[in-house]
């Protein structure tokens, strides 16, 4: 059986996925166009759910001490992100560092990361995927059972497959620069008469300026703008002259908001920015992508190894497309609140009153942090099904059967290597066993052993002893 999976793109999502696939026992090749990791300044926020996942994989310590900010904002309206989680709030870590650490983890687990490979053709013949890439030694071909496109917002694979990618094209742009030698005051999402401005000076004396001019058309850009353009717009919006500053980095981003209709096209799947493009606001883009990877990894690895029950892989699209749609909607709302002209002020004023009310605040904080993600269960499932379990060690990437007693522990034996029994304090209710997926979400809760077996089969495939005997349950998820 070909358990090989090609991941296109060694950004944070591709590297997280590579590690997850290795934990699931798949053979992984990551093809990355860049010869060296990027040094570009990008996302800097990890949210609570991502931190919980990193902790469950034993990766929290590797990140060391991180600056922590309990507050955040919704469309520039300040709000507290505190929720019941060991990691609530925002954790500041440059994306370059996140990539470096995830890359090291994936390689240590055995992922084969090939740099300087620019994918240019993908063919899915129904039985396998053939990938063609330009490499320093010419055009090379790799064959695999599956391919996952983690090649970012301008995804080559998305274009090659012609995947439908509906949504809203960009109508608003932000110009951004890191500048040395500026003596201007800090501004936090300041909405002025002509636009919105942010300025933040770091301890090294570099000021990040970010500016949007209301109503300014999004130019057709083939390259990043020069600093003169940034300082012109900054002058018009704030009245300040920053043209004498020394730019270190200049960049733009916009409010394009698009999501693939389907995250799976045969043997080709999509994750991260390749699957959904959104304005990078409040750090949700990166976190959404990392959580795509953690949802997909164990399912795809099981599929490639032949242990996955029928339909498991398709739950990736079902679960993550719905989460993505909701996040993209909140990001689009925030873009309007932040970047529309004075006509949006009445909406902002109303929200500024609504957001601090505890119910609303908790709802928004749950959405922004990813802590409220709940995958849908069946009508007869326990209400906790689909929610996350925290503070469990899943660094081996296995599912867990949290058991109330020894007899239940024996029950998981035929799924050894896929599911590990653990005795924990009651997670849900005394006497109940809890089946936990490798991504930390609850698959089943109950006390009847035959239902536990059915749930194990439904999520982790047939028991080992039966797998060789053409198990009649295989391919027929048994429900509850
Ligand atoms: C310029 C920029 C600034 C951003 N700023 C912020 C920010 O301030 N805050 C925030 O929260 N988010 C920001 N984001 C968004 C955030 O960086 C992304 O959400 C995150 O990087 C998504 O990770 P990814 O792995 O899906 O894609 P990427 O990080 O884009 O990684 C994709 C990888 O695929 C590789 N690749 C592309 N095509 C090919 C190919 N044909 N063959 C092989 N490899 C290929 C690329 O080289 C890249 O390494 C920014 C994004 C960009 C592009």
TrEMBL record:
Q: What range(s) does the FAD-binding domain occupy? A: 2-329
Q: Mind telling me which InterPro entries this protein's record contains?
A: FAD-bd, FAD/NAD-bd_sf, RIFMO-like
List the Gene3D superfamilies hit by this protein, alphabetically.
3.30.70.2450, 3.40.30.120, FAD/NAD(P)-binding domain (3.50.50.60)
Taxonomically, which superkingdom? Bacteria
Asked if the keyword Isomerase belongs to this entry, the reply reads: no
Listed cofactors: FAD
Coiled-coil parts of chain: none
What are the alphabetically sorted keywords of the record? FAD, Flavoprotein, Monooxygenase, Oxidoreductase
- What Pfam family does this protein match (any one)? FAD_binding_3
**Keyword NAD among UniProt keywords:** no
Molecular function in Gene Ontology: monooxygenase activity
Q: What SUPFAM superfamilies does this protein's entry cite?
A: FAD/NAD(P)-binding domain
Q: What is this protein called?
A: FAD-dependent monooxygenase
Q: Which organism is it from?
A: Luedemannella flava
């Amino acid at each position: 059986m070909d358990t090989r999976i090609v991941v296109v793109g060694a950004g944070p999502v591709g590297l997280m996925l590579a590690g997850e696939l290795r934990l699931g026992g798949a053979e992984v090749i990551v093809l990355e166009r860049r010869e060296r990791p990027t040094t570009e300044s990008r996302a800097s926020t990890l949210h609570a759910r991502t931190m919980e996942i990193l902790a469950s994989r034993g990766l929290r310590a590797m990140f060391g001490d991180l600056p922590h900010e309990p507050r955040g904002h919704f469309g520039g309206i300040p709000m507290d992100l505190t929720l019941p989680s060991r990691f609530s709030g925002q954790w500041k870590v440059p994306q370059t560092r996140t990539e470096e650490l995830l890359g090291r983890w994936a390689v240590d687990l055995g992922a084969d990361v090939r740099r300087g490979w620019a994918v240019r053709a993908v063919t899915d013949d129904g039985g396998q995927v053939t990938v063609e890439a330009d490499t320093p030694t010419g055009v090379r071909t790799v064959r695999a059972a599956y391919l996952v496109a983690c090649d970012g917002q301008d995804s080559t694979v998305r274009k090659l497959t012609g995947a439908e990618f509906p949504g809203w094209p960009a109508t608003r742009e932000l110009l951004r620069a890191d500048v040395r030698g500026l003596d201007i005051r800090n501004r936090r999402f300041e909405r002025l008469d002509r636009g919105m401005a942010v300025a933040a000076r770091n301890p090294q004396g570099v000021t990040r300026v970010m500016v949007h001019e209301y109503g300014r058309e999004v130019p057709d850009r083939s390259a990043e703008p020069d600093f003169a353009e940034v300082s012109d717009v900054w002058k018009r919006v704030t009245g300040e002259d920053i043209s004498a500053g020394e730019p270190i980095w200049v960049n733009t981003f916009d409010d394009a908001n698009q999501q693939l209709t389907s995250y799976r096209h045969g043997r080709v799947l999509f994750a991260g920015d390749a699957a959904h493009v959104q304005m990078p606001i409040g750090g949700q883009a990166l976190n959404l992508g990392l959580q795509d990877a953690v949802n997909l990894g164990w399912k795809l690895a099981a599929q490639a190894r032949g242990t996955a029950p029928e339909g498991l892989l398709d739950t990736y699209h079902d679960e993550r497309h719905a989460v993505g749609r909701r996040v993209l909607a909140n990001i689009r709302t925030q873009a309007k609140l932040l970047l529309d002209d004075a006509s949006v002020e009445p909406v902002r004023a109303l929200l500024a009153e609504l957001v601090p009310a505890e119910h609303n605040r908790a709802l928004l904080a749950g959405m922004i942090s990813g802590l409220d993600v709940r995958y849908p269960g069946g009508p007869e499932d326990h209400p906790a099904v689909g929610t996350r379990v925290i503070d469990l060690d899943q660094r081996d990437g296995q599912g867990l059967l949290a058991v109330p007693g020894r007899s239940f522990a024996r029950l998981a034996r035929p799924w050894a290597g896929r599911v590990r029994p653990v005795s924990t304090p009651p997670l849900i209710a005394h006497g109940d066993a809890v089946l936990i997926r490798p991504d930390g979400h609850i698959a089943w809760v109950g006390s009847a052993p035959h239902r536990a077996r059915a749930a194990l089969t439904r999520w982790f495939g047939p028991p080992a002893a039966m797998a060789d005997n053409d198990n009649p349950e295989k391919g027929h998820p048994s429900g509850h």
